[in-house]
Design brief:
alpha+beta, five-stranded antiparallel sheet, 1 helix, 5 strands, about 20% helix, about 40% strand, disordered C terminus
């Protein structure tokens, strides 16, 4: 399913990341997983459940747009190991 990973760099601190992923679960619900943290540190994650893909996609777009407004941006270079 779609995954969006955003990064924010700062001269004083280690790079930060914000990940949004949409996935179906075993209970016919759509999950939006959000994970954020400092590269190389312990991540924080949150899962929100939705009844359909359209609602989940709209929520994922809202989360992504909010992160972009907070200074995160897309990057081709991976800073986070999976």
């Amino acid at each position: 399913m779609p995954v969006c990973i955003l990064y924010r760099r700062s001269r004083a601190a280690r790079p930060r990341y914000y990940r949004v992923e949409i996935a179906f679960n075993l209970f016919n619900e759509v999950s939006v997983l959000r994970e954020w943290g400092i590269s190389g540190g312990k991540p924080v994650s949150r899962i929100d459940l939705f009844g359909n893909l359209l609602d989940a996609s709209r929520a994922a777009d809202r989360f992504r747009n909010r992160a972009l407004r907070r200074g995160y941006s897309r990057s081709d270079r991976a800073l986070v190991s999976s």
